[in-house]
Each structure stands twice: as structure tokens, then as C-alpha cells.
Amino acid sequence: MARARTPWDDPDMLPWIALAVSGLVYAAAVWWSTLRLPADGVPRHFDATGAADAFGSRSDVVGGFVLIGAVMLGIGVAAVCLARWGSLRLVNVPHRAYWLQGGRTPRLRRMLATDLGLLLSATVAFLAVIPLATVFALRSEPAGIPPALLWGAVGAFAAAVIAWCVWLGRYRYHPARDR
Questions:
Q1: Which residues contact 30 (CB under 8 A, 6 or more apart)?
Q2: Most exposed residue of 47, 89, 96, 114, measured as fewest CB within 10 angstroms of its CB?
Q3: Which are the contacts of 58, defined by CB distance < 8 A and separation ≥ 6?
Q4: In 3D, which of 39, 33, 20 has the Cα closest to residue 121?
């Protein structure tokens, strides 16, 4: 007896599932932080040393978290939609001529949608650190995030994105991988 197909079986669903999961992770982080932040005196911004340099009310800060998450998820949805159904005229991929001829365009669109969806999902999931860090910043006096933790997290995420982009450019979109 054949197994019933699920959305997980469809590779076209991967970017949508990734965006949904990262959105849920972000929403959970915002919800968790909302329950733990005081009504006033919440850090709204941190300087390069991790020290809080602007404060506001819980509703202002949480509203900012929600806005950031909604904008990033909106960008993710728009990027996946443009990759799947938009014009490829302005798309710049390695070996562009190869991908735009010989019936390879549908595969290119799937790859672009998946890669953009995963990149933006990873970004939204990484941004979930902000509400968590805001709660933990209140535990120190003065309020702040240890610089090593702040820059370590940002540096690790940037290094991962750069490494992934290099892999995409050198291997994933290389014509030899398509054969």
C-alpha cells in the first residue's frame, strides 16, 4: 500500500515550511520575552559594546519586535514568490546562460526559491535572539549584553551565511551538478 503524500514530500514546499517554522520560533521568542519584560525601562537599543543606550516601555519594544518579524517574513514571502513566478531578467546567478536555456528554468526557479526561503528563514530564526537577549540584558547592571556574546553571535551568523553563499556560487549552481 502506497504511503499518502504530505506537504513534506513536495520540494516546492520547503521554503514555505522553513519560513513558517522560523516565524513560529520568532513568535515564541517574542511571546516568551513579553511575559518576562517589565512594564517600563526595557532596553530598545544596544551600542557596539553591548550596553543598552535607549529604553522604552514593554509595549513599544514588543511592538518593534513584532514589526521586525513581520517585515522579515514579508520579505521572505516576497522573495520566494518572485523566485517562483517573477521575471528572471534581473536575476544574477553563476552560469546564467546555462540555467536560462534548454528547459532548465523551472529547476532554477525551484533552487532560487528554496535558497532564498532558507536564507531568510535562517535570518528570522537568528533574529529571535533579540527578544531573548533583551530579557537577559536586564539581569545585569547596567543593562547590557556581554560584547563577546553579542559579537560572537553576529560573527558566527555572518560567517555561516558567507560560507553558505560561497557553497551556492561554487557548487550548487555549477552546471556540472545539474548533470
A1: 62, 65, 66, 69, 128, 131
A2: 89
A3: 34, 37, 38, 39, 40, 42
A4: 20
| Rounded average pLDDT per 10-residue block, the chain, 179 residues | 64 93 98 97 94 95 98 98 93 91 92 96 96 93 90 96 95 79
Model pLDDT, residue 51: 93
Grid coordinates of 76: 521572505
Give bridge partners of residue 55 from the DSSP assignment: 43
Placement of cell 500500500 in the chain: 1
| pLDDT on residue 177 | 66
All cell numbers assigned to 126:
537568528
- pLDDT at residue 64 in the model: 97
* 11 preceded by a cis bond (ω within 30 of 0): no
Cβ atoms of 65 and 132 closer than 8 Å? no
SS3 of residue 49 by DSSP:
coil
